[in-house]
Every structure is written in structure tokens, then in C-alpha cells.
Amino acid sequence: MHRKFIKTSLCLALLHLTIGAASAQFVWLDAKGTKQYSDQPPPSSIPKSRIMKEPALELRNSTGDTTATTTGPVVVAGADAAAKPAAVGAAEAVGTPKAPMTTAEKNTEFTKRQAEQAEKDRKTAEDAKEAAAKAKNCERVQAYARSLQSGERIATMDKNGEKAYLSDDKRAQETSDAMRTLNGCK
After folding, report:
1. What phi-psi label fits residue 173: left (phi over 0), alpha (psi between -120 and 50 degrees) or beta?
2. Could you say which DSSP state residue 167 is in?
């Protein structure tokens, strides 16, 4: 009989602790309209009008004595802010410290930092690829300019597949175009 009493007492004590912990819960609607339950405060991105339940809130006077104990407001989404009790408004005026980040907020921040770093790496690789292509193009133009300035005959193929040699006027025009391009390479 004594064992049964101890087991029953232990079960009742555990039940009492569980009920106490369950009463200190936050309930809010997230951005998708889903109810969220937690013993931690909702993320700072959740507006006060979407918080449906908060645990007990104690207000202390200047001597440190507890002057009032009130539970958080039950607010329906979109309800008027004037419906808040005066004690809750006073607590907000005092300035409650910002709650620590939840795991979901930490994961969101981490994912955001990863995406930013990936974008930065992609841009860096793209810039390096463009710089390499520009350097290669500059080398080609420089070699072509040297060929033009050497004075040797340069032949090209026309649309009929026949060899055509650059005239002096065309060579001068090609040389000036190459020099203009090389000025952009510096």
C-alpha cells in the first residue's frame, strides 16, 4: 500500500510540473497563418497583433515588489492594439530586452549568410573569368597589331573563298581599330 501511495504522489508531482510548464507557453500565428506553440517568445518579426497567448507577466515597482501579475492578452489576428490591457502596455513602455534567437531564426540567418557567400563567390568567379577572357582578347589584338605594323602582306578570304590582301587604307583602319582596343586593355 505504501508503494502505491509513493507512485501516485510521484505521478501527481510530475503532472503538476508538466501543467506548470505548459501554462508558460507562447502561442502565435506565423506568416503562413499556422499556430505556433513554444516556451520561447516568438521571433521579433512577428507583430504583437499575431501573438495569441503569452505566459504570466510580473510588473515590479521601484522597490522591487511585485505590484501586478497578469497573463498576456488573447489577441485575435488583426485585432485593434487598443484592446491590450494597461499592464501589458506599461511593460512594453519599460522596454523588455530582446529575446534570444530561436533555432528557426538562427537557421534562417545561417541560410541567408550561406546564400550571400555563394552569391559573392559566384560573382568573384564570374569576374575572374571575364578578366581572363579580356586578357586573352587583349593578347590577340596585340599580336594582330604587331602583324599590321610589321608591314608584311596580310591575306584574308573573301566570301567567294578567294584570297584578298589588305590594302594600305584598310591596313591603316585596322591598325587604328587595334590601337583603340589596346587602349581599353590598359
Report:
1. alpha
2. P
